[in-house]
Design brief:
Blueprint lengths: L1 E2 L2 E2 L3 H8 L3 E3 L9 E3 L35 H9 L2 H10 L9 H19 L5 H20 L7 E2 L4 E4 L17 E4 L4 H19 L8 H15 L8 H6 L6 H15 L15 H17 L2 H14 L1
Antiparallel strand pairs: 1-2, 3-4, 5-6, 6-7
Helix pairs in contact: 2-3, 3-5, 4-5, 4-11, 6-9, 6-10, 9-10
Length: 313
């Protein structure tokens, strides 16, 4: 038996492929519906077996097949919807020639972003959250072991670390240094969402202190709020509250907290041993830059809004 020039040697194998088949609906006057079978291109024998690697329940619906086969394991993921092929994609990715695969890179970022959004919406039950967390942690382990990916080292808050950055002869790169912290250029909405979610969490508490002029009173107020709504391990120490926070307005309070939190993240073991520390001024500047990018190119952010809508519908 041969389908699309791929030989399928037995009825048993045909039945296995049938599990991944897509139904092409019949139109009036056509013959009976046909089924398209996909023979995965990726050799899995001897490779890592991933937990829930065949489960299709959490396949991101916002992915479109690029109709190329430049990265076979990625096409297998798109056609079979089995996460194991996504992890094989990360293992097989040719990072030295990363710029040659812009479409494929976007698909990888979208898949990770979608799983993150699933957790952010809090719509999952305990078992589903466990599975999605496993997917994200597995992807993170593979990515961390192969750093740097896409030219930077990503963090879960949407920020990235650059090392040995090569400047372009452009205006936007005029002040760039070799080592710096920025937002994820492939998923700029990730940092924006992270910032806005924290802002929303604190917004309801701002009205009681918004008109206050004394920074001392504001400092005492916000410290009290943080201690009342955050878990103990997520509360900065007294020294950090005193020296690393700006209490002038809500945006600067949010930027201060994200900077403190980011500096607590443990870097990948393969990340260069150059300590990059964030501060409130830098985080706020990054936030304003992302807002500018959103206003200038809203399509970059609109795609992620679609995925959230699909998830919650």
């Amino acid at each position: 038996m041969s389908i699309f020039r791929q030989h399928i040697g037995s009825l048993k194998r045909k039945k296995e492929l049938d599990k991944n088949a897509k139904v092409v609906k019949r139109r009036k006057g056509d013959y009976a519906p046909t089924r398209l079978f996909f023979e995965p291109r990726t050799v899995v024998k001897g490779r890592t077996k991933f937990k829930w690697g065949n489960l299709k329940d959490f396949y991101p619906p916002n992915l479109a097949n690029p109709l190329t086969c430049r990265i076979p394991s990625l096409i297998d993921f798109l056609e079979t919807r089995q996460p194991k092929y996504f992890f094989y994609t990360l293992e097989d990715w040719d990072f030295d020639n990363d710029d040659n695969f812009p479409v494929e890179k976007e698909l990888v970022c979208k898949a990770i972003m979608y799983w993150r959004l699933m957790l952010f919406t809090n719509e999952l039950d305990k078992e589903s959250s466990k599975i999605v967390n496993y997917y994200l942690n597995t992807a993170n382990k593979i990515i961390s072991s192969r750093m740097p990916i896409f030219g930077y080292w990503p963090y879960k808050n949407g920020l990235v670390h650059y090392y040995n950055y090569i400047k372009d002869d452009t205006y936007k790169d005029r002040n760039k240094k070799q080592y710096f912290i920025s937002f994820n250029p492939d998923i700029p909405s990730m940092f924006l969402s992270y910032f806005d979610e924290l802002r929303e969490k604190l917004f309801q508490h701002e009205r009681d202190i918004k008109l206050e002029k004394s920074l001392k009173v504001k400092e005492e107020y916000w410290i009290k709020i943080f201690k009342s709504i955050f878990e103990k391990k997520k509360i900065p120490g007294a020294v950090a509250f005193k020296t690393s926070f700006n209490y002038q307005n809500l945006d600067l309070v949010v930027a201060s907290y994200i900077a403190w939190e980011h500096n607590k993240f443990r870097p990948s073991k393969n990340e260069p041993k150059i300590k990059l520390l964030a501060d409130w001024k830098q985080i706020y500047s990054i936030y304003k830059e992302v807002c500018f990018v959103r206003d200038k190119n809203p399509d970059l952010f609109y795609k992620d809004k679609i995925s959230i809508t699909e998830l919650c519908s």
